[in-house]
Amino acid sequence: MLNWLKSPATETQITHGGRLWLYALATLIILFLVVPTLIVIPMSFSDSQYLEFPPQHWSLRWYEHYFGSDEWMRATWTSIKVAILTMVVATPVGVLAAYALHTAKMPVVRLAFVLLITPMMVPLVLVAVGAFYVYVKLNILYTVTGLVLAHTVLAMPLVVIVIGSAFKTFDMAQENAARSLGAPRWKAFLTVTLPQIRFAVVTAALLSFLTSFDEVVVAMFISGGDNPTLTRNMFNALRDQIDPTIASISTIMILVTTSMMVLAQVFGGNRSSE
Amino acid sequence: MAASFANGANAAGLKHDERVEKLKLFGLSAPALLIVFVVLVIPVGWLFYLSFIGADGTFSLENYARMIDRSSYRRIFLMTFEVSVLTTALTILIGYPMAYFLAQLPNRLASIFMIAVLLPFWTSLLVRTYAWLVLLQKQGLINQWAIALGLWDEPIKMVHDLNGTLIGMVHIMLPFLILPTYGAMKSIDRDLMKAASNLGASPKHAFWTVFFPLTIPGLFAGALMVFILCLGFYVTPAVLGGGKVIMVSMKIVSNIEMFVNWGAASALGVVLLIMTMIILWVASKFLNLDRIAGGGH
Q: What is the domain-level CATH number for residue A232?
């Protein structure tokens, strides 16, 4: 009777029975992945001092508290400003570097690549502590400039990797053809290459924005004074007690990142329809 | 004779031009490298220097000696390794079936379920840590539901300890494992599995002898990324560990914030960094580093 459970279901060699188990397991894993992220949203609309689900009384008081607080608002603007500037700096600098590594076929390229992706591997606390020490000497501690510089270092590996893999699938012969027809290199790059890797560029830009916006550990050390970031304030609030304001901020952040994801998908969709 | 000589000179000239061209191209990476130097290389070099300066301001190894002498420091390193190993193991156990689930779906369906992996990936680390704090606390949702379902009678303490930390960290690390493993699975030639079954392999046999070995590079890359990220992790253990889970990175911060002891903090940082680099170096013997880097997005 149950023999069909043991027969192969797919060419990836899973049995029907195995697939039942897999689907049950996958459902649990998906719940594990998604529920904790989404549960914050309804909780943020609660009237209670304590976080409850489902909320007994709905209210916007924690949103009012957030938008009404000068401190939270200032921190939010600092975070947005720093994230946009990081995106504006890290994307072109990273694209240039990825282009250099792709086209200059020299032994030193390998070393440069490793150096550029090192910030992903180095414990963040070290970057934070080190940057703090150097920023004191450079007199840029607690400044937007200092934050942008540090966040650019953290975002650049992602840009270099995303753009680098786009170059790998891009046929450089096209750019060379443009150049052999008389276009200078920069013009060939801007008019032939860049339009074709633009999806990767948008992805890289979004990743740099999010890297900066979401960064906590480095910001703990080098943001402060007049320029604390949102995450720095959130982390401090979390360490002390569970403040429902954080739930409303979290909800807004989820909305912002999800819409950015949709944005990225829209750009990706355009590419595949071409 | 004359013609070939001219050719030779020309070739040398071309070679020279080519080298200049390559150097110019390489020069385009200068801004990126400069930023890495200012914000990463110089500061870490500075910390390295500081770690050899004793309390009296002269060269000394006392910061490193302290690490060897004091059992509290040894415990912190052991704890860091324990948390990292456990998180990586759990992430593999949960992430591999999930990647397999995605890989055997048709592409269109897979991209829908992929949202489940990407949503947390794109959601703030703090938001997710916060969510777990809320879910796992004594009056939290998990306790409420478990009691309602009769799983246990009284609220259980699940947060502010190792368990809470592990749950939060696994949740944060899963995408880093699933994405490269899924990539490895998708790139496997499907005909291989057909061939295996044509040759009489049972599904189980074909899975373990053909499919699984081919996914190891992706799995390994993901696991390595997870392990390295765990070693230097700060936020989640600081919030969910409730002071019971002390990782090296937390000790570095407290050494500076509470004791203003830069020497001790730097020495801890240097040891942590060297450990990370050794692990990466050993791993690079088995694995192309580009693959690890590819796991980061």
A: 1.10.3720.10
Structurally, chain A folds into a number of domains equal to 2
What is the residue range of A109's domain?
70-273
Q: What residue in B sits closest to A140 (Cα-Cα)?
A: B39
Are residues A263 and A224 part of one domain? yes
Nearest to A162 among B103, B127, B297 (CB): B297
Concatenating the DSSP letter of every residue in A175-241 gives HHHHHHTT--HHHHIIIIIHHHTHHHHHHHHHHHHHHHHH--HHHHHH-BTTB--HHHHHHHHHHH-
What is the arithmetic mean of pLDDT over B184-209?
84
C-alpha span between B233 and B123 (Å, rounded): 17
Q: Which amino acid is at B34?
A: L
Residues in A closer than 8 angstroms to B39, CB to CB, are 127, 130-131, 134, 149-150, 152-153
Q: What is the predicted ipTM?
A: 0.85
B94-141 residue pLDDT tens: 999 999 999 988 888 888 898 888 888 878 888 888 889 888 888 788
What is the least distance, in Å, from the CA of B97 to any CA of chain A? 7
Cβ–Cβ below 8 Å for B36 and A234: no
- Write the residue in A99, A127, A158 that is nearest to B40 by C-beta: A127
d(CA B157, CA B148): 17
- Residues A78 and A56 placed together within one structural domain of the fold: no
A256 to chain B, closest Cα gap in Å:
9
pLDDT value at residue A16: 80
Instruction: Mutation target for B interface from A32, A121, A152, A215: give the one with most B CBs within 10 A.
Output: A121
Q: Is the domain of A9 the same as that of A91?
A: no
> In the structure, what pLDDT confidence band is assigned to residue A268 with cuts at 50, 70 and 90?
low
Q: Which of residues 156-175 of B touch A (CB under 8 A)?
A: 171, 174
Residue A208 and residue A162 in contact, taking contact as beta carbons nearer than 8 Å: no
